[in-house]
């Protein structure tokens, strides 16, 4: 679907997110020929730059990070002519007048009305100021639509998130706020809905009667990188669990929506968070494990402990790993454990969901030769994209020996799939909020997280340690072993 003319103001246009994700995403959309003839990107940054220097920076970013190549100089000029730049201090009203001037001048020249999108690729501490100034300057008073795009962290707990939301709502309605959780932009996460609701094979089995447990893993090999300042205050619980892991959980658990409409889908997702069993501070130790990486070997190279990373306090108590056992207390999911885990400096970078079905009764095919494996549906999100269904079959040439077999579908083997930011920015342009986070999701996720955080902040003993390059601390394995389960396959 072709979008209407729009202007996209990017605050933080000289920053890392713009460079690594936003400019390449715009170029990919341009190459996919789904942008309208008229669109305008206004970069806003603190440093003083000429438009030409800014355009050169956009080019470097596209050359380094875009999935498409620039085919010719003519193509590049056609793309980059849409980019403007203005240097501005976010607190200074004059800058907003300049942005408004740039947009209005283009509208006049082209005789079109631009819808207005504002992407805040800046520190969340500035979200409230910018949104207030967007209103005061009249910049947010578009003739077409106006939309705000922001990203986590949205607050550091429920109260701070609520306060921030209140301030933003002075300028933007809920329908105008696009809260990005980039996991929702990933192809295979969007595919969960289709796999579940378009296959008669899965939906009847998708409940506590047939599902033994579900595992959600989002492991990383990178350490804290250059984000010590943010990460040491956030920790893995706020950085990954409050958003990405709970989003994956919602996609797996939600009831079928009445229609494939944003509101219906959000409603069902929100209900999952409402049903999520809340743990009191005295229960956290039983259901959650947190840990920090020590030094270790990764790809044959020694990497430092978290506490020895640049910018990290030598006594930091921040967790870089979280594992938990969650329950969704509704009829569908009664007593099915959902194991989640995420961590930095782990053995592999994997994002995966494992749905383990209940064992068959063992009276027919169970003896010493046959170790009957459970049926497993593996949904791979990264680096492979696809699904694998593990079944049992007869081992060729034997009587009744059983062997596990896999049916496999690869989502990105033939063709490169769009990047998360690409599809999310496009959705924001066309006004589809489905894969953005509703305020109620943010609020409920914090309400679930807050008691865990509070307990951990008071209880230094709760922090475990694991060697870099491993699958996390022993306790994360014990969490499953208690139920006769294990992280799948062996790790
Ligand atoms: C971000 C976190 O939201 O997600 C990072 O802030 C993390 O700490 C990243 O590295 C992981 O995203 P992906 O897409 O690489 O799995």
From TrEMBL:
UniProt entry tagged with the keyword Secreted: no
Catalysed reactions, as listed in the record: D-glucose 6-phosphate + NADP(+) = 6-phospho-D-glucono-1,5-lactone + NADPH + H(+)
An annotated Gene Ontology molecular function: NADP binding
The enzyme's E.C. designation: 1.1.1.49
Domain of life: Bacteria
Binding site for substrate: 182, 186, 220, 239, 344, 349
Domain named Glucose-6-phosphate dehydrogenase C-terminal: residues: 194-488
Alphabetized UniProt keyword annotations: Carbohydrate metabolism, Glucose metabolism, NADP, Oxidoreductase
Domain named Glucose-6-phosphate dehydrogenase NAD-binding: residues: 9-191
Pfam families: G6PD_C, G6PD_N
Broad class of enzyme this protein falls into: oxidoreductase
Active site as annotated: 244
Protein family according to the UniProt entry: Belongs to the glucose-6-phosphate dehydrogenase family.
Protein name, UniProt field: Glucose-6-phosphate 1-dehydrogenase
């Amino acid at each position: 679907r072709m979008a209407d003319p729009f202007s996209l103001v990017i605050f933080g246009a000289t920053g890392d997110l713009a460079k690594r994700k936003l400019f390449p995403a715009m170029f990919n959309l341009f190459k996919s020929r789904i942008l309208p003839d008229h669109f305008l990107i206004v970069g806003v940054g603190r440093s003083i730059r000429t438009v030409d220097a800014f355009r050169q920076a956009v080019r470097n970013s596209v050359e380094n990070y875009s999935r498409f190549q620039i085919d010719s100089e003519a193509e590049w000029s056609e793309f980059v002519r849409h980019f403007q730049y203005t240097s501005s201090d976010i607190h200074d009203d004059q800058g907003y007048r300049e942005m408004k001037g740039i947009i209005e001048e283009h509208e006049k020249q082209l005789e079109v009305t631009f819808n207005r999108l504002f992407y805040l690729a800046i520190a969340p501490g500035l979200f409230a100021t910018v949104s207030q100034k967007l209103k005061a300057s009249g910049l947010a008073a578009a003739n077409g639509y106006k939309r705000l795009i922001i990203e986590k962290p949205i607050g550091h707990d429920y109260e701070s998130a609520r306060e921030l939301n209140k301030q933003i709502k002075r300028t933007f309605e809920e329908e105008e706020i696009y809260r990005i959780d980039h996991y929702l932009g990933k192809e295979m996460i969007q595919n969960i809905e289709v796999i579940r609701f378009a296959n008669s094979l899965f939906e009847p089995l998708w409940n506590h009667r047939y599902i033994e447990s579900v595992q959600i893993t989002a492991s990383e090999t990178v350490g804290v990188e250059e984000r010590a300042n943010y990460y040491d205050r956030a920790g893995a619980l706020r950085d990954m669990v409050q958003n990405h892991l709970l989003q994956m959980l919602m996609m797996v658990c939600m009831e079928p929506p009445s229609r494939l409409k944003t509101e219906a889908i959000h409603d069902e997702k929100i209900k999952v968070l409402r049903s999520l069993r809340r743990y009191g501070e005295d229960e956290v130790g039983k259901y959650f494990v947190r840990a920090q990486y020590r030094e270790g070997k990764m790809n044959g190279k020694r990497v430092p402990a978290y506490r020895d990373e640049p910018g990290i306090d030598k006594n930091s108590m921040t967790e870089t790993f979280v594992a938990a056992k969650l329950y969704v207390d509704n009829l569908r999911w009664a007593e099915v454990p959902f194991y989640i885990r995420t961590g930095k400096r782990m053995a592999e970078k994997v994002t995966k969901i494992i749905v383990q079905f209940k064992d068959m009764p063992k009276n027919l095919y169970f003896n010493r030769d046959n170790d009957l494996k459970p049926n497993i549906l593996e949904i791979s999100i990264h680096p492979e994209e696809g699904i694998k269904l593990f079944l049992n079959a007869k081992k060729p040439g034997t009587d009744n020996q059983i062997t596990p077999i896999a049916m496999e579908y690869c989502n990105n083997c033939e063709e490169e799939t769009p990047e998360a930011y690409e599809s999310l920015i496009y959705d924001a342009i066309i006004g589809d909020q489905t894969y953005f986070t509703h305020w109620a999701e943010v609020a409920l996720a914090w309400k679930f997280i807050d008691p865990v955080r509070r307990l951990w902040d008071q209880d230094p003993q709760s922090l475990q340690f694991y060697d870099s390059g491993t699958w996390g601390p022993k306790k994360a394995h014990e969490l499953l072993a208690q139920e006769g389960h294990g992280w799948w396959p062996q790790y």
